[in-house]
């Protein structure tokens, strides 16, 4: 039986939803599948199965730092490797985000076979409607069985990356440093805060502490927004990026048929939904 290890970083749940769907489909095909979480990126892996799938949300046209670090410390293996990524918009400039992860995988001896990209609602930048979130998830669910089949068969699914995507990824990789810097300017409105400590307990890099009635922020922020997105009273200010803050879970059970594609990236969303571009 084919053993597939799915490693997932998901700050606010979108990537995990897709990874779980991939698992469900792979199990149906007859694979033995385990999902393991990537959090701060230093998780030790002793050995891997026949295939690994690394799943992450695109952050600033790149993979998040914890995912890149995680890929560096995978054991040497000649297993097949795939990437599953989610992002808020379907622009092709997201295409090169996997570069560092792929480089590390190849360096460790993995046979990198390609990637799958699913558009899911923004957890930062702006809030999609619940109808749009439902349409995105529905579309991902329709396309994931084909992705599972590719993984199950060990087929290649490589993407041609444009020069523009490579250039943008390179420039915006400053986001990794910027996230750590900006993280120091996070604030919690203590009048609103109900001290549920979800932010402290769930931060992937344990960057938030609460001492003597005060929240403190270290220099390991990934700007993943798990803290601010899941804050039940929207008490977070996320530094210089606060104007892009999105708070609160999406209702993925909303009526996907009612989703309207807005003006923003209208062409690329229309293209994404209309063709089977996976
Ligand atoms: C810091 C940050 C940067 C992001 N950058 C991009 C981006 O460059 N392109 C994009 O399409 N979406 C971007 N997004 C949106 C996420 O990739 C998207 O919402 C993703 O599905 C979130 O997945 P998660 O819920 O598993 O964390 C960004 C989100 C964050 C928090």
The CATH superfamily of the largest domain turns out to be Flavodoxin domain
Task: Output the helix-strand order.
Answer: EHEEHEHEHHHEHEEHEH
CATH architecture of the largest domain: 3-Layer(aba) Sandwich
Number of strands: 9
Mean pLDDT over all positions: 96
The radius of gyration is 19 Å
Explain this structure:
This protein is α/β, with parallel strands linked by helices. Helices cover 34% and strands 18% of the residues. It folds into two domains: 3-169, Flavodoxin domain (Rossmann fold); 175-244, Alpha-Beta Plaits (2-Layer Sandwich), CATH 3.30.70.20. It has nine helices and nine strands. A five-stranded parallel sheet has the order 2-1-3-4-5. β7 and β8 form a beta hairpin. α2 (65-72) packs parallel to α3 (99-107). The longest helix has 24 residues, at 130-153. The mean pLDDT is 96. The site of flavin mononucleotide has 24 residues, from α1 and β4. Flavin mononucleotide is lined by residues 10-15, 57-61, 86-89, 94, 120-124, 223-225.
Question: What distinguishing features does this structure have?
Answer:
binds flavin mononucleotide; alpha/beta; five-stranded parallel beta sheet; 2 domains; 278 residues; two-stranded antiparallel ribbon; Alpha-Beta Plaits; Rossmann fold; globular; 18% strand
């Amino acid at each position: 039986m084919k053993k597939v290890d799915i490693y997932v970083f998901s700050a606010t749940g979108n990537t995990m939803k897709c990874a779980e769907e991939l698992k469900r489909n792979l199990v149906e095909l007859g694979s033995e599948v385990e999902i393991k979480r990537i959090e701060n990126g230093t998780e030790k892996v002793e050995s891997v199965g026949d295939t690994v799938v690394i799943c992450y949300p695109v952050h600033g046209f790149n993979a998040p730092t914890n995912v890149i670090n995680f890929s560096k410390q995978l054991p040497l293996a000649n297993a097949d490797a795939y990437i599953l990524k989610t992002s808020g918009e379907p622009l092709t400039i997201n295409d090169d985000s996997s570069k560092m992860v792929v480089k590390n995988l190849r360096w460790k001896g993995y046979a990198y076979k390609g990637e799958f990209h699913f558009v899911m609602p923004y957890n930062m930048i702006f809030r999609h409607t619940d109808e749009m979130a439902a349409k995105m998830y529905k579309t991902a669910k329709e396309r994931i069985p084909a992705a599972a089949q590719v993984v199950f068969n060990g087929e290649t699914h490589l993407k041609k990356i444009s020069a523009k995507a490579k250039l943008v990824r390179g420039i915006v990789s400053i986001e990794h440093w910027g996230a750590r810097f900006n993280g120091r300017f996070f604030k919690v409105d203590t009048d609103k805060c109900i001290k549920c400590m979800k932010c402290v307990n769930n931060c992937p890099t344990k960057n938030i502490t609460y001492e003597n009635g005060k929240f403190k922020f270290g220099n390991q922020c990934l700007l993943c927004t798990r803290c601010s997105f899941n804050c039940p009273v929207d008490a977070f200010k996320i530094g210089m990026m606060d104007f892009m803050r999105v708070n609160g879970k999406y209702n993925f059970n909303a009526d996907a048929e009612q989703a309207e594609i807005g003006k923003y990236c209208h062409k690329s969303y229309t293209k994404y939904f209309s063709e089977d571009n996976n």
